[in-house]
């Protein structure tokens, strides 16, 4: 079916948001009603947007300075003492520098600590691969007992904070900085192991996480103009995965395109391919950063460079369908 | 999750009362006898498992016995009591000594010690808090305990709890940089409720600390991070108890001078006993030396 309205880039008609704002607002709202809530950071008050939290709850912000291993260990100790720590730090340093603390002190020790990785993916753009957090999903998916939440918009970010507070166990929230439009209503909730369907479709499935969900929706619109119906699934939980939705997509559509602002080695796409391969083998095309360090460039340049745009996603979907037709 | 042993808890409480009421000499004898028992338990655990870290177990035994018999405020029948003192064994490879000590307090039945490192046992080679009551955090990789201790001390301050935190560190472990991140943080926050005990036996897995990556001047290093420092014979129970009784408005580092393999002549201060398993003849000799 072909729509008559012209397709325009989303940025032309939508207001875009940095989800760190929604994160900080929800954290402060939570702190007002739950006195266990504390924020722990590594000189990242600015980059985690915690100035408001600090001003409202000066005693409940623990800034350990530039020391990520200590930061995560301190959070484990605060949880031992009955508090509910939200560790807020740039995702590359939180996950890369403190990976063993995340494994041993938080996940293995089963501490109710919420690890909040700020500005993930290639959000730091021109600052380069040292500051890109594209490995975090691969690293953390390898750790047991650690749900991974990748919200796609401000409402889902707020829902992620509420869910993590209520979860009674560890979690990792990947809080987007790259601008995204509103996709979900304010009452949206999250359920572990559940994708959120955004469009119906039975030709091809687009499964996306975080900052790329809205681009997958745009890709579906592009495809619809060509008579291709694409099922779009948002994956707020990369771990645990919605295996049933993956199996249904593999059965009911001719192939799957996954898309995320992460390496292709072990994130959402690898998880989806693993489930599909095990239960219902189909064509899976994994979009992300393909085993290279990014060149210099701003966020939009890098996303285009790696094909992480509506056009790139639609191209991948066409390729999947062409393969299926062979 | 294991559960407490009520008769053993009562026995431990009676022992604590005797230690408290005894004169100095009698107290020293009571605690030394308790340490011998822990060391014999550790030998039996290692014998059964065919694995273990006897050297570090024996260097830390007198510290653990002193803390649980006369210093720490804990409730083995209520291991999650919010105002309990926190003992964090950062040198998690000395798990056997900690398990034997916790069992002696009644945190779980002493019969469980026989399962040390056996398939599906709660008593892994390194401690797991989700399986063993009295374990505050999972340790094993080095350099993890002190940051967590900073967190428990900060939590006590935020919650107005009297709980104190004691972190036991291996000396070789201090080569891990995370300790110094935590030391700086504790000094900055003047965490007077935090004590770090350095099990200063001078040996790490492969060689002497001073021949590997020297720690001295160790006391000065702690002082320069804003800590009070006490040095003590780590095998003198009475001296340890006196040091632990001193409170400061700053975090305190207790440098406990110890010997690896302490208590058994042929293991004492010998690097090869880091994780060597004694033979049948060596076990008999060791047991004889530990029966006073």
TrEMBL record, chain A:
CDD domains: TPP_PYR_DXS_TK_like (cd07033). InterPro entries: PDH/Transketolase (IPR051157), THDP-binding (IPR029061), Transketo_C/PFOR_II (IPR009014), Transketolase-like_Pyr-bd (IPR005475), Transketolase_C (IPR033248). Residues 17-182 form the Transketolase-like pyrimidine-binding domain. SMART domains: Transket_pyr. Gene3D superfamilies: 3.40.50.920, 3.40.50.970. It comes from the Bacteria. This is Transketolase. It comes from Kribbella orskensis.
Automatic annotation (TrEMBL), chain B:
The keyword Cytoplasm does not apply. The keyword Zinc-finger does not apply. InterPro entries: THDP-binding (IPR029061), Transketolase_N (IPR005474). Signal peptide: none annotated. Keywords: Thiamine pyrophosphate. Its cofactor is thiamine diphosphate. Residues 35-289 form the Transketolase N-terminal domain. Belongs to the transketolase family. This is Transketolase. It comes from Kribbella orskensis.
């Amino acid at each position: 079916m072909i729509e008559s309205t012209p397709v325009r880039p989303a940025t032309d008609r939508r207001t875009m948001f940095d989800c760190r704002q929604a994160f900080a607002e929800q954290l402060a709202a939570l702190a007002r009603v739950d006195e266990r809530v504390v924020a722990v950071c590594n000189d990242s008050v600015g980059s985690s947007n915690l100035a408001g939290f600090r001003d409202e709850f000066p005693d409940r912000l623990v800034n350990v300075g530039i020391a990520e291993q200590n930061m995560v260990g301190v959070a484990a100790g605060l949880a031992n003492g009955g508090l509910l720590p939200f560790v807020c730090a740039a995702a590359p340093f939180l996950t890369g520098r403190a990976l063993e603390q995340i494994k041993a002190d938080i996940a293995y020790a089963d501490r109710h600590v919420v690890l909040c990785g700020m500005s993930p993916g290639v959000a730091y753009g021109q600052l380069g691969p040292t500051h890109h957090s594209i490995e975090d999903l691969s690293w953390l998916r390898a750790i047991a007992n650690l749900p991974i939440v990748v919200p796609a918009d401000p409402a889902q970010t707020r829902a992620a904070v509420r869910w993590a507070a209520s979860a009674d166990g560890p979690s990792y929230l990947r809080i987007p900085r790259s601008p995204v439009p509103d996709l979900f209503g304010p009452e949206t909730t999250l359920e572990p192991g559940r994708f959120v369907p955004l469009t119906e479709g039975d030709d091809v499935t687009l499964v996306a996480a975080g900052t790329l969900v809205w681009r997958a929706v745009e890709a579906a619109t592009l495809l619809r103009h060509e008579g291709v119906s694409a099922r779009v699934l948002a994956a707020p939980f990369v771990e645990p995965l919605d295996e049933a939705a993956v199996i249904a997509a593999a059965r009911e559509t001719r192939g799957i395109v996954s898309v995320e602002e992460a390496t292709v080695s072990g994130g959402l796409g690898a998880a989806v391919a693993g489930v599909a391969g095990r239960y219902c083998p189909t064509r899976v095309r994994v979009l992300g950063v393909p085993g290279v360090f990014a060149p210099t460039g701003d966020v939009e340049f890098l996303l285009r460079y790696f094909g992480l745009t509506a056009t790139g996603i639609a191209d991948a979907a066409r390729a999947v369908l062409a393969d299926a037709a062979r | 999750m294991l559960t407490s042993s009520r008769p053993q808890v009562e026995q431990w409480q009676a022992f604590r009362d005797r230690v408290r009421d005894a004169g100095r000499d009698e107290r020293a004898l009571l605690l030394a006898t308790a340490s011998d028992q822990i060391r014999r338990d550790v030998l039996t655990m290692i014998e059964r498992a065919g694995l273990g870290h006897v050297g570090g177990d024996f260097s830390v035994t007198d510290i653990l016995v002193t803390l649980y018999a006369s210093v720490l405020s804990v409730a083995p029948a209520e291991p999650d009591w919010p105002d309990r003192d926190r003992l964090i064994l950062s040198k998690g490879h000395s798990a056997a000594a900690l398990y034997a000590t916790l069992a002696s307090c009644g945190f779980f039945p002493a019969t469980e010690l026989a399962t040390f490192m056996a398939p599906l046992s709660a008593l892994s080679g390194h401690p797991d808090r989700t399986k063993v009551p009295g374990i505050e955090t999972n340790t094993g990789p080095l350099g993890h305990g002190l940051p967590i201790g900073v967190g428990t001390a900060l939590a006590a301050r935020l919650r107005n709890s009297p709980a104190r935190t004691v972190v036991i560190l291996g000396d070789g472990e201090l080569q891990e940089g995370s300790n110094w991140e935590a030391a700086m943080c504790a000094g900055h926050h003047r965490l007077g409720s935090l004590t770090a005990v350095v099990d200063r036996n001078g040996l790490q897995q492969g060689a002497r600390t001073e021949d590997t990556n020297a720690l001295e001047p160790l006391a000065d290093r702690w002082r320069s991070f804003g800590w009070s420092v006490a040095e003590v014979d780590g095998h003198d129970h009475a001296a340890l108890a006196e040091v632990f009784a001193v409170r400061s408005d700053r975090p305190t580092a207790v440098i406990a001078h110890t010997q690896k393999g302490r208590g058994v002549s042929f293991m004492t201060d010998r690097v090869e006993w880091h994780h060597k398993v004694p033979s049948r003849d060596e076990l008999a000799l060791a047991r004889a030396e530990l029966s006073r």
